[in-house]
Each structure stands twice: as structure tokens, then as C-alpha cells.
Automatic annotation (TrEMBL):
The keyword Ion transport does not apply. Pfam families: Caa3_CtaG. It is a multi-pass membrane protein. The chain crosses the membrane at residues 12-35, 47-66, 78-97, 128-149. It comes from Rothia dentocariosa. Keywords: Cell membrane, Membrane, Transmembrane, Transmembrane helix. GO terms for cellular component: plasma membrane. The keyword Cell membrane applies. This is Cytochrome c oxidase caa3 assembly factor (Caa3_CtaG). Its main location: membrane. The lineage of its organism: Bacteria, Bacillati, Actinomycetota, Actinomycetes, Micrococcales. It is found in: Cell membrane.
Length: 191
């Protein structure tokens, strides 16, 4: 529990940080010289795999995780975060798909592959797959968020009903009494 409540955890699991890290990492990795470093050096490639795995895990933890975290956004905000980051995946996939130049041409252009698609056509296919297949997990997560939201609403309604049964619906009675007083005050002012 000490890790869950640590300063580091509060930063990386904050919804804004998790979303920016998730969306921004993709752009930073694929559209900067960092991509070449991660291709050329084994440790760079391992770092990229670990980073994307942890980034995805933390983002999913914020959206649909059941483990305790310091900042859990409400369900509408979770859906907004999901839709906002979806745009970044689409942007990167479409950018790669429509690119006229090879990403890291010094690497992919010198692989010596003579079979199949050209390196540029292969990259375009990869961009299309990134865009198209990337939407499938997003839809699954959106369904999971919707399901969790529905279940949370049912639990809240059941808790409110149990409380109303215990106290004779005191909250509703107080609410109605407030409106009755307001109505009486309006009636006095109108007379």
C-alpha cells in the first residue's frame, strides 16, 4: 500500500498524466530520432516494449482498473479520456499510412528484403493496421467502462433504497418539505 500512496504513484496514475503519457508517447517514439535509437540498440528496443506496456497498463488502470489509485475519474470523464486518446492513435496510424517517406529509412530501407511489399508499402500497411486494429481494444474498453458505470449506478441505487427503508425516506421527505416551504413563501409574496 505504500507504493499505491507514494508521490510517484499519485503522479503516474493521475488521469491527465496517464492520458498524456499514453497518447504522447506514441507520437514521441514514432516521430522523433528516438525511434531510430530504439531500433538500433537492443536495450532501446527493450525500453520501448517496457515503456509501452507500463504506459498502457497505467492508462487502463485509470480507466477500468479495480485496484486502488489516488485519483479515479468519474465515468463520464473516463469515456472522454478514451475518446480523446483514440484520436491520437488514429492520427499516428493515418500519418504513417499516408506518409510518402519511410520512417527511419536508414534502417528499414537497408533490410535487404526482396520478397513481399516494398518497405514503404509495408509501412503504409502497418499504419493501416495500427489505426484499424487499434480501434478494437478501444471499443472493448468503452464497453467495459459503460458496464462498470451501469453496475456502479445499480449499487448506488440499491444503497439509497436501503437507506430510505431504514430511515423512512428521510432524505426525500426533507427534499419535499423544502419545496413545500418554497411554495408557501412564493404564495405569501404573491398575495
Amino acid at each position: 500500500m505504500r507504493i499505491v500512496h507514494s508521490g510517484w504513484s499519485k503522479v503516474v496514475t493521475h488521469p491527465i498524466f496517464a492520458a498524456v503519457n499514453f497518447a504522447g508517447s506514441i507520437i514521441i517514439v514514432y516521430f522523433t530520432p528516438l525511434f531510430g535509437v530504439m531500433l538500433r540498440y537492443h536495450i532501446g528496443h527493450e525500453f520501448m516494449m517496457i515503456h509501452f506496456t507500463l504506459t498502457g497498463y497505467i492508462f487502463m488502470l485509470v480507466l477500468i482498473g479495480i485496484d486502488p489509485i489516488p485519483h479515479r475519474p468519474e465515468y463520464p470523464m473516463r469515456l472522454i479520456m478514451l475518446i480523446a486518446t483514440l484520436g491520437y492513435h488514429a492520427f499516428v496510424g493515418i500519418s504513417i499510412m499516408n506518409s510518402k517517406a519511410l520512417l527511419e529509412a536508414s534502417w528499414f530501407g537497408n533490410l535487404g528484403r526482396t520478397w513481399g511489399l516494398s518497405a514503404l508499402d509495408d509501412q503504409k500497411m502497418g499504419g493501416a493496421l495500427m489505426w484499424g486494429i487499434g480501434e478494437i481494444p478501444t471499443m472493448i474498453v468503452a464497453i467495459a467502462v459503460g458496464f462498470q458505470w451501469s453496475m456502479a449506478d445499480k449499487k448506488l441505487a440499491a444503497r439509497i433504497d436501503r437507506q430510505a427503508d431504514r430511515d423512512g425516506d428521510a432524505e426525500l421527505n426533507a427534499y419535499n418539505e423544502m419545496f413545500e416551504r418554497l411554495h408557501e413563501e412564493d404564495a405569501r409574496h404573491d398575495s
